[in-house]
Design a protein that fits this description.
Elements: H1 4-24, H2 28-57, H3 68-80
């Protein structure tokens, strides 16, 4: 499994390349769009990594607790609450 740091570094690298290209072409609007997209995607990735970490450390990973499907159903019910 890839580490959190490696995943976030890859995300940063992808956006940095695009940002640098837009900057060299003086595309201010594109740079702003990339900044916003990067922040959104970084937040989403961190949430997904947190979920991955929780599932990995859960009792289900040691086969003495609820399974992954039950955990995801519980998480889904929490997320749906207003």
């Amino acid at each position: 499994m890839r580490s959190r740091d490696r995943i976030l570094a890859n995300l940063d690298s992808v956006y940095q390349e695009s940002y640098d290209r837009a900057k060299s072409e003086q595309l201010t609007r594109r740079m702003e769009e990339l900044d916003a997209a990067y922040m959104r995607d970084q937040l989403m990735m961190e949430v997904l990594l947190d979920i991955r970490d929780l599932l990995d450390r859960s009792p289900a990973s040691r086969n003495d607790g609820p399974g992954t499907i039950q955990q995801l159903a519980k998480l889904s019910s929490i997320v749906r609450k207003p």
